[in-house]
Amino acid sequence: MSLSDDEPAFGRTVDGYRSELRVHCYRMLGSFTDAEDLVQETLLRAWRARASFEGRSSLRAWLYRIATNACLDMLRSHPERVVPVGDAGDPAPSEIPWLQPYPDRLLDEVVPGREEPAALIVARETIELAYLAAIQLLPANQRAVLILRDVLDFSAAETAGLLDTSVASVTSALQRARATLKQHRPHEPDEWAPPVEPSAEERRLLRRYMDAHARADSAALVAMMCEDVRFTMPPQPTLFQGRAALAGFFADAFGGAAARDFRLVPTRANRHPAAANYVRGPGDTRFRAVSVDVLRFENGQLAEITTFDTSLFHLFGLPDVLPETDLPATD
Known about the structure:
Blueprint: H1 7-15, H2 18-29, H3 32-48, H4 59-77, H5 104-107, H6 118-121, H7 129-135, H8 140-151, H9 156-163, H10 167-184, H11 200-214, H12 218-223, E1 225-233, E2 236-241, H13 243-253, E3 261-269, E4 272-280, E5 286-298, E6 301-308, E7 321-323
Parallel strand pairs: 1-6
Antiparallel strand pairs: 1-2, 3-4, 4-5, 5-6, 5-7
Helix pairs in contact: 2-3, 2-4, 3-4, 4-9, 8-10, 9-10
């Protein structure tokens, strides 16, 4: 098999892989914006190297090879993108400046190549923010091997071919990567589950969160939280951990709320419930976007809040300004 020298025809051939390659680059880099850039770089490299594709491997594997190496090149030129590993048992940091959310509406658009089911590509446990934060602990080559082997189910031989290394090196890198993740994510599932629709409990908890926030009721928010709840705000190096710390934060945040009105709009990111925050200030007639909160619930309690700015709001299909008369339903 050879690839067409006609650029539009080539584009039609490879474009079906664009969405899954973006998810792959997102896992490698933790940044949606960088993933978009690297997919463009991947397809440009593929076009330039089209004569080298001889069909000995699948087109999908060839594109993943190019994408993975493009990401590795980027990580080598930005060594700060690997977070130093702390002591064994320390939680993986989630206060990572470059971390960005991935809207579920775009995950739902992933159309894989013929070789793989979409469920494997966008499995919840391998797209959630906690997983992305954890793999930032891994050196770039270990991160690539882990994703190719454990997430995308490439064989050791296929992975070695994609990375121009030996099967022994792949096996060693995978063992080290798994050991690091086990130290920092001791409750890692044995198998990745396919994405599921939000449960009735998730929807109920999201409504509670939105209602408490809209009422600026810090006590009601804290009542939802587990004892070791975490709150981070990438790209700020902000970390609040524990109910007491969050109680103080929200009490301060809502302290001057009498002059402001809050509205929250339900959405989803990284296969978790999320809420887009809008505020109407004194003398204003419109609710203006301020942030999006990605929420993780465990055993009916709020375990983690990761708050992002509005830079990716358009990717959620949300407006920057929300007229009061056009508020979406909360169900």
